[in-house]
Amino acid sequence: MERGNGADRSTGRWAYIGSFTTGGGGGITVAAVDADGALVPRTTVGTVPNPSSLALAPDTGILYAASDTERGAVVALRPEGDGLTPLGPAVEVGGSGPAYLCLAGYRLLTAHYGSGGVGSLPVRPDGSPAGPPVVLAHQGSGPDRERQSGPHAHQVLPSPGGRWVLSVDLGTDSVRVCALDRATGALRVHAETPLRAGSGPRHLAFHPDGEVVYVLHELEPQMTVCRWEEASGRLEALSETAIDTTGLPEGERAYPSVVSVAPDGRFLRAAVRGSDRVLTFDLADDVEKPQLVDVVDCGGSWPRDLVTDASGLRVYVANEWSGTLTWFDADPGTGRLSRAGAVDVPAAACVVFS
């Protein structure tokens, strides 16, 4: 298997890779990022069961991890060199199977895939989360009886202006826009945007202009382009873009997983499980009309997460089933990807960078 060059030319930057402990993963792997963008694993911290999503606080550098368990929880950890020190015990989020977490000011938000809702926890001055959680339960279902018998919130994140919170629900085929009470943490549904029935929206990303949103669907290989209005808190679906399923074995389904927009807004990328591909779309001509320009193998199997680094020149893919974290060099002119290296991370689920 291809590896990084093995030489740790440290840049002072770190990567934190979450992996499913019930799938053979070690928990959270801490890796140094060298000058070429290669990852050099240093330590693995196994104190968090099934860390499905990670987030770094931009001001304190504290790492937050969602524990995807029946009694979902979050843990705060302070990075210290190549180690992680927990800031107190895990705090329950008030829902099962948290699949995503993020920070919204001094609140920690979680999306509960299992129980179908969004939770809110306060963050103490030392950076640790506190309870009890405030939970907004989603309601509804979809036509896919196996996957959409009830709500399944898969992602939650604040709007670019910070005024609203958006939650993506695979079970109800919709995106909810909520108002967040910063004092109490309560979430109130302000608007709900319905998407194609049975499509199973899973993940969204904002364009850096803050006015366009790309929603990737898991149950149908498609992406919905939406217009976002920060002032009114309205999300309007504009058009659909097909997701290429090149490489999909006959009789198998594709399950798109994550969408990511490069920091300069020029390119958009989506990972597709099943076909195990990464797609690159060019947005230069029109941000509302993504143009497919590149399709490459993801460097493993079942790509669950995809992250573009701050330079826009490297793309990292967490391949859950093959247990690899693979990275690519991105051509700044064409957006095309070329595989540059990989490291073994069993049951890799997610990655964030300091």
List the helices and strands and how they pair.
Layout lengths: L9 E10 L8 E7 L4 E7 L5 E6 L6 E5 L5 E8 L2 E4 L4 E2 L5 E7 L2 E6 L4 E6 L11 E4 L15 E6 L5 E6 L4 E7 L6 E8 L6 E6 L5 E6 L4 E8 L4 E9 L12 E7 L5 E7 L3 E6 L8 E7 L5 E6 L5 E6 L4 E7 L6 E8 L3 E6 L1
Antiparallel strand pairs: 1-2, 1-29, 2-3, 4-5, 5-6, 6-7, 6-8, 9-10, 10-11, 11-12, 13-14, 14-15, 15-16, 17-18, 18-19, 19-20, 21-22, 22-23, 23-24, 25-26, 26-27, 27-28
Task: Describe, in short, the structure shown.
Helix content is 0%, strand content 53%. The strands form seven sheets. Strands 4, 5, 6, 7 and 8 form a five-stranded antiparallel sheet that branches.
Protein described:
This protein has strands at residues 10-19, 28-34, 39-45, 51-56, 63-67, 73-80, 83-86, 91-92, 98-104, 107-112, 117-122, 134-137, 153-158, 164-169, 174-180, 187-194, 201-206, 212-217, 222-229, 234-242, 255-261, 267-273, 277-282, 291-297, 303-308, 314-319, 324-330, 337-344, 348-353. Helices cover 0% and strands 53% of the residues. It has no helices and 29 strands. With 354 residues, it is mainly β.
